[in-house]
Amino acid sequence: MAQTRTSPDPIQPEEHPARNLTLTDTRVQRAWAHWTNLGRPKLIVAPMVDNSELPFRLLCKKYGAQAAYTPMLHSRIFSETDKYRKEEFTTCKEDRPLFVQFCANDPDVLLEAARRVEPYCDYVDINLGCPQRIAKRGNYGAFLMDNLPLVKSLVEKLALNLQVPVSCKIRLFPKLDDTLKYARMLEEAGCFLLAVHGRTRDEKDGSKFRADWKAIKAVKEAVRIPVLANGNIRHMDDVKDCIEATGVEGVLSAETLLENPALFAGFRTAEWVSGCEGDFVDGKLDQADLLIEYLNLCEKYPVPWRIIRSHVHKLLGDWFSLQPHIREDFNKQYKITFEYLYDMVDQLRDTGTRIPLYLKRTETEPTDTDQHS
């Protein structure tokens, strides 16, 4: 890979023992130098189809996220279709560090797509973890685990031809040893950063299957490049516990952020207050407040309405359950407007409905809850 936009900082001895430098060693040094140059972000918005678009990324970054992935982009369509590029990939100067994620099964097509975005991002990421049927039909995502030579060729193609580093997001093989061999292969092919979703391809439902942090720890110990963990991140206690358990550089959160974009600022929904250790107080913030902020960002950075609809349902799901007639009216709208959405939030508030987000009060925090407003 060509030299990245980083300073040639040496690898810290405690992280990577000194040795005679090989090509792989040089790549490892550059991988760490690049990560350090970005500030070593720990709190990261995971890639989510139709959900980790620019306005949502910016909202999460306002509330503590330190980096973010774009939604998965289809490399062939991105290369061929101007309308798709304009609608599905938008960014701005505040949108950094940024991972732009592609699904692909053709190295040349992937490279063409990647070259279009490399001036605007900090990593071009290859989606090797999508377990959905559409990925099986399209032969990409986690289904490329059945064709490791192709995976290797995708990584090598980008590593040898881009100025920006390549990263990969993977799932686990059923056998840990296969996962470790996979991770080492990606590192040797030129991957500069590895995000590991701690579930297998068949474990699609995160509510049924806990992410395997022990397996993520084993991957972290098997490679020398930076590693991120994905899975079981519902609040900041999980962030702390995951980093301690795995030794990774940072964590990704997905589904929980959709309900609570302020997760990384320490806020949590009522679901993750009950039964948890600590004293929690009303954070003087709720999901309707966050929706208004999100809509403001959408007015500044337009996105397709289908994406906005999705976020409305995710953010106001609990509110809608208390006021189903407002949800039903929303669902009937063939065409929505910002005016309609702002009025809908006012309707919810006028009913007296409010579901606060909570903050944990620590021993050093004041007892006056107004301090959190």
Task: Characterise this structure.
GO terms for molecular function: flavin adenine dinucleotide binding; tRNA dihydrouridine synthase activity. Its EC number is 1.3.1.88. It is built from 15 helices and eleven strands. By secondary structure, it is an alpha/beta fold. Strands 1-2-4-5-6-7-8-9 form an eight-stranded parallel beta barrel, surrounded by six helices. Strands 10-11 form a two-stranded antiparallel ribbon. Helix 5 links the parallel strand 4 (98-103) and strand 5 (123-128). The longest helix has 18 residues, at 305-322. The protein is globular and about 65 Å long. The N and C termini lie far apart (48 Å).
Which stretches of 5+ consecutive residues score pLDDT under 50? 1-19, 363-373
Number of strands: 11
Tell me the overall shape.
globular
Biggest sheet layout = 8 strands, parallel, barrel
Kindly report the spatial arrangement of strands forming the biggest sheet: 1-2-4-5-6-7-8-9
Strand content: 15-25%
Terminal-residue CA separation: 48 Å
- Rg of Cα set: 21 Å
Average pLDDT score: 90
- Helical amount: 40-55%
Q: H/E element string? A: HEHEEHHEHEHHEHEHEHEHEHHHHE
* Class from helix and strand fractions: alpha/beta
The number of distinct helices, counting runs of at least 4 residues, comes to 15
Protein name: tRNA-dihydrouridine(16/17) synthase [NAD(P)(+)]
Pfam family, one: Dus
Keywords: Flavoprotein, FMN, NAD, NADP, Oxidoreductase, tRNA processing
Domain DUS-like FMN-binding: 45-317
